[in-house]
Amino acid sequence: MHRRHVTGARNRLDLSDRVQVRIVRKRLKVSEEDLAKIVRTAGNSIAAVAKEATSRKRLTLPGSQMPPEETIASIAKSEMVR
């Protein structure tokens, strides 16, 4: 019976382990490049990586939430008239 010998701590992310990287990427829904950037900033602790990934997701806005240019122009005109 062959068992995989696990080296290192369970709560550390090893970027050379393709299976572990794939699982973490799927769980956090980030690309491989984004995961590498997060590991560089937060370290290789899985908890720290997860925390950093969620905070980065909160900082990005989903799509453009700006009103159309016509609306902005009409408001600017009405404020200039005053």
What is the topology?
Elements: H1 18-28, H2 32-42, H3 46-59, H4 69-81
Quick take:
Helices cover 60% and strands 0% of the residues. The longest helix is centred in the middle third of the chain and has 14 residues, at 46-59. The chain has 82 residues and is mainly α.
What structural keywords apply?
mainly alpha; 60% helix
Describe the 3D structure.
This protein has helices spanning 18-28, 32-42, 46-59, 69-81. It has 82 residues and is an all-alpha fold. The chain has one domain (1-61). Helix 2 (32-42) crosses helix 3.
Q: Roughly how much helix do the residues carry, as a percent range?
A: 55-70%
Give the H and E element order: HHHH
Low-confidence runs (pLDDT<50, min 5 residues)?
A: none
Biggest sheet features: none
Distance between the amino and carboxyl termini: 83 Å
Number of helices: 4
Number of domain modules:
1
Instruction: Round the mean pLDDT to the nearest integer and report it.
Output: 84
Strand content: under 5%
Structural class: mainly alpha
| Coarse morphology | rod-shaped
Measured on Cα atoms, how large is the radius of gyration?
Answer: 22 Å
Please count the beta strands (DSSP E, at least 2 residues each): 0
